Amino acid sequence: PTAMREVFLETPKVRWSDIGGQHDIKKRLQQAVERPLKYPQRMKRLNVKSKKGVLLYGPPGCSKTLMVKALATEAGLNFLAVKGAEILSMYVGESERSLREIFRKARAARPSIVFFDEIDAIAARRSSSSGGVNLLTTLLNEMDGIEELRNVLVIAATNKPDVLDPALMRPGRLDNILYIGPPDFEARREILRIWANMSVVNPEVDLDKLASLTEGHSGAEIVSICETAGDAALDDEEETQQEQDVQWKHFEYALAQVRRQITDT
Ligand code: ATP
Fold first, then answer.
1. Which of 17, 109, 132, 189 is disulfide-compatible with 211, CB 3.0–4.6 A?
2. Reduced to 3 DSSP states, what percent helix, strand and coil does the chain have, rounded to the nearest 5?
3. Any residues with CB less than 8 A from the CB of 105 and at least 6 apart, and which?
4. pLDDT tier for residue 127 given thresholds of 50, 70 and 90
5. Whose CA is nearest to atom 3 of ligand 1?
6. Residue among 66, 68, 73, 224 to mutate when testing ligand 1 (max atoms within 8 A of CB)
7. Which atom of ligand 1 is closest in space to residue 19's alpha carbon?
8. What angle do CA 4, 157, 187 make, to 5 degrees?
9. Strands (E), the chain
10. Whose CA is nearest to atom 29 of ligand 1?
11. What pLDDT, in 10s, does the model give residues 33-84?
């Protein structure tokens, strides 16, 4: 009996509009997918091959996963997600089999995206052998299976690009390398606004000020601040037995609770 976990096709429902900021990244991802589908003739004329792979790197909680899900939703692509650590944890030989199976499914479901989160778990430098050599080789072989990968986009994400085996980033593999950094002021304001639009935030709350105060926080932390503020408002509701909106004092409380993990060490 095999312990191989099934990898299912997912249908993410994330839209571009759910992601604050990062407009440049959104556009580049869109192009990587849309060009080959919309303008194959133009690409052929200029001798430009379609991109097979994208590597997203940057600090945790800054929308890498969100981006890939939005791309799949907005472009109408099937989506397979795999966590590096999950594959690595399988029995010897099973990881490789599972990896090949994932690509088989992706080809059967094209146009599709295969998303490898924590790619560093399966594609670390060959020298730093963790028994993952065969896995890396399998991954490279699958990616090199050229024609067959048409309309399958491989996207990988990592917080540790420096440990990746350089072979992975060679032309024709994950050669479209994009950095997704912490949200800038504009992005933070958008993240706050997106959350506020789905909640009931008191009009006295100055989102610009909040955007300034959250400098250095990841997107995930900003959402966490909002939810902590929301929780504080719920506490008030319970205490007063009256409906509350989320007020400045709640955000102040939340700001003190949520630590910056990107810039603090
Ligand atoms: P990790 O490296 O830890 O996997 P990640 O970069 O893939 O992190 P996501 O999973 O995309 O991060 O983001 C985590 C959560 O943070 C999201 O589900 C979302 O709630 C929030 N978030 C992060 N960035 C943004 C953003 N720009 N706009 C809206 N929400 C965001």
1. 189
2. 50, 15, 35
3. 7, 9, 80
4. low
5. 60
6. 66
7. 28
8. 135
9. 9-10, 53-57, 78-83, 112-117, 152-158, 176-179
10. 19
11. 888 888 889 999 999 888 889 999 999 999 999 999 999 999 999 999 999 8
